[in-house]
Amino acid sequence: MLNRKRNDRAPSSHSHETSLIARGTVIQGDVRFSGALHLDGQIVGSVLAEEEGAVFTLSESGHVQGEIRVPHAIINGQVRGDIHATDRLELAQEARVVGDVHYRTLEMAAGAQVNGRMSHHGTEAPRELPAPSLAGAEAVPA
Fold first, then answer.
1. Which of 58, 88, 128, 131 could cross-link 62 (Cys pair, CB 3.0–4.6 Å)?
2. Residue pLDDT, tens place only, 62-78
3. pTM above 0.85, yes or no
4. Would residue 49 count as lying in a domain?
5. What are the tens digits of pLDDT across the range 97-140?
6. Residue 134 burial (CB < 10 Å; 0-12/13-18/19+)?
């Protein structure tokens, strides 16, 4: 049945295929994926995407104990480890993260919890704040 469905798809659809790790499944070790990965089970190890457009989805029943390094992450379960989302990070209502969160774009729902540092990493150069003016010094026009 799975082979029939896979054969019905166009050959160019590989980047859109989703892998599912079901509830009750525990994987010990790093998981590398391309396309999309949906986790209802548990991974004890790192989750690493091998392509730019990859999407990792952690359902409310899912658990990751380790680092997550992906372009796009949708988190609604429990993570014990740092998250590095190079493009977009979505923290849904049931997200529980113990670790540092690094993101370019962040969407966080009411109820999501992060116990760690949150740091934004943009693609553009960081904006510099103007230097504090010294008392009695004049500003030089640009």
1. 58
2. 999 999 999 999 999 99
3. no
4. yes
5. 999 999 999 999 999 999 999 999 875 544 555 556 555 555 55
6. exposed
Distance CA 56, CA 60 (A): 13
Print the domain residue range for 103.
14-115
How many domains are contained in the chain? Answer: 1
Q: What SS3 class is residue 2?
A: helix
Residue 59 has φ and ψ, to the nearest 5°, of -75, 170
In a domain, 70, yes or no: yes
Residue 56, in any domain of the structure: yes
CB of 50 closer than 8 Å to CB of 70: no
